[in-house]
Amino acid sequence: MPNPLPDWLSPPPGIKRPEFCTERDVLAALAADDAGPAELAALLSPAADALLEPMAQRAQALTVRHFGRTITLYVPLYLSNYCSSGCVYCGFASDRTTPRSCLSEADASQEMDKLKQMGFEEVLLLTGERTPKADFEYLERCVAMAATRFHQVTVEAFPMGVDEYQRLSQAGCAGITLYQETYDPEQYERLHRWGPKRDYAARLEAPEHALQAGMRTVGIGALLGLSEPVMEATRLLQHARHLRSRYWRSGISISFPRVRPEAGGFKAPFPVDDTFLAKLIFAFRICLRDMHLVLSTRESPQFRDGMAGVGISKMSIGSRTTVGGYVEDRAKSAPGGQFEVSDQRDITTFCNMLCTHHLQPLFKNWDAAYRDAPPRAAAAFTVCS
After folding, report:
1. For residue 339, is pLDDT > 80?
2. pLDDT level of residue 229 (50, 70, 90 thresholds)
3. What backbone torsions phi and psi does residue 354 show, to the nearest 5 degrees?
4. Domain positions in the chain
5. Which among 101, 104, 85 has a CA at the least distance from the CA of 93?
């Protein structure tokens, strides 16, 4: 049976359903000083379609107020595409015919050196679910290597307990990214056919375990297209509010990935178009004024250009979803990626675009010295990267 939802994941009772919201409700949400689930419902309602421009203006004003005219940049580095789970939407699922690869520590070191030469100061290390080829100890060693090069090291990997997250933090990891994929327990069970990722509760609890362990940042999100998008958005907002209420000194970020073509040919049962995604980003900025909202290279150049600084405050660039892929010789022989990258611009082209939009590319707003602060003192820092 699917896992029951925890109480904090459901919105407060009495909130008007989006289809019953009116233009007056949308205008009230735009003017609200403390927007929450009720305002989100109004901002995602059909009535909001006629007010997208005021929503965009409000989102942009709030983004500038809290982040200035900057876009924080990071780069993902896939360490391994071995996986033990059977997610129907993922190119790394264990039944895919994609050739498997795992970077040796020497190769990982070369990839990191290349990213450093490209100017990056924040790297996101990724693996599939836990396997003998890419287990916790391997990830811990890669984090330690990255921490000697980059000011900000985060990981997107398998869920862990508090003890393992503490070890990663001690190795130099500042945060994690972990998408719930879908907040619908029944759909979650259907989409995750086998493997450790079938455990809905373990995945939902992992971001909190990371914060309990002393991680300074946590990124969450839903893979848009897997379930009804307004429900996903509502529960994602509740998840973010729950984490912030308990770990208010930590940095919480929200990502908006959409299902992209991958090796298994999966088609999204609830496709999300550009208009709704834009509305979703505006609504989250209005509800979560000072949280980083993140947009990856899954999205087209045109869409990313339009969202930069208009709700979105953080982006990846130059991404490869293959294992490695940044060192030239290795890039030519890299196996297939987890999904197709849509924005394939290089760093210079992308940064020039930001400049034409009067936005400053920000490669570093965190210093590695903070990683060495004693745990009690570290808890007093407010993280914004």
Report:
1. no
2. very high
3. -60, -40
4. 69-378
5. 85
